[in-house]
Amino acid sequence: MSEATDTAGATGIATSVRLTYDEGEYPEDVRGWVHEGVTDETFLASFRRRHDTMAEGEIFDEFVSCGCGSPRDVTLRVVAVDGGPRVDEGTELVVEPTG
Asked: Among 23, 57, 59, 82, which one has the highest count of C-beta atoms within 10 angstroms of its own C-beta?
């Protein structure tokens, strides 16, 4: 594995990570709920704790609440990492819809 992709021994902290998801996978009536779910600070804090490193191209299968006990599966793709690959509570996570 190259030094650029080996995150096992990485020490640099990411200042921000940009993630995307395909909003076209969801019916129009739940797209707002999905977006609220993946941009909610409680979700993002949990996401940071569960994923201590991130690299461009990495994919995470998550689920978010869409109200009334209706979770939805969401696939988040890392499209940009500023700084090192390690994620901590200070790393800004930006989540944007595509397509």
From this structure: 23
Domain residue spans of the chain: 14-98
Which residue shows structure tokens 């009536």?
29
DSSP-derived 3-state class of residue 70: coil
Model-level pTM? Answer: 0.84
58: phi then psi, degrees, rounded to nearest 5: -70, 145
Provide the residue count of the chain. 99
Given CATH 3.10.330.10, say whether it is the number of domain 14-98: yes
CA distance 97 to 76: 10
Upper half-sphere CA count for residue 92 (Cβ side, 13 Å): 7
